Amino acid sequence: MQDSILVSVHRGTGAGIIVNGQVFLGHNRNVGEIGHIQIDPLGEQCQCGNFGCLETVAANPAIVKRVRTLIEQGYESTLALKEHITIEDVCSHALNGDELAKQSLVRVGNQLGKAIAITINLFNPQKVIIAGDITMAKDILFPAIRRNVENQSLTTFHSDLHCCLRDRQAANHGCFRDDQESDAQRRFVTKTT
Ligand SMILES: [Zn+2]
């Protein structure tokens, strides 16, 4: 793939960018800090010192923290029974229909989608790959990402764009391989026609 962007969501949120088949390195090999794109001017303070960075919403610790806070505030959730909540718990409970877990991940998808739309407008990639534990809940996450990408990036840039997830096996091989299951669920092509 000549031009692609890998978005990874783990303890933080980052991006790897491939332009013309080469990894885009930037100054001092620092680049792709999409986690520090501001998505909410009145959001929480980020470890970088600024406020409302993507990473304050779309990173594993931030997701779990928000779910825990909402439960403490009295919102109902099947996760309330758990003493220790992990990102896997949030995903599995969301997939099992827990509304709080589900809405939390939709929010993450919306904000990720906004930041991804910005990178699409900047780099016009052929492919966007999403990696991280949250891809367990791709059926919840991807529609939210797709909606935002379609609304916020140029139609000519996203009309043939492939957006897919990188599975753990491929991740272990350190490659972008993702076509082992290239059915409609595993990737979306944001064709508008
Ligand atoms: Zn930040």
Automatic annotation (TrEMBL):
Gene3D superfamilies: 3.30.420.40. Pfam families: ROK. PROSITE patterns: ROK. SUPFAM superfamilies: Actin-like ATPase domain. The keyword Transcription does not apply. The keyword Kinase does not apply. Keywords: Carbohydrate metabolism. PANTHER family: N-ACETYLGLUCOSAMINE REPRESSOR, ROK (REPRESSOR, ORF, KINASE) FAMILY. This is N-acetylglucosamine-6P-responsive transcriptional repressor NagC ROK family. It comes from Vibrio variabilis.
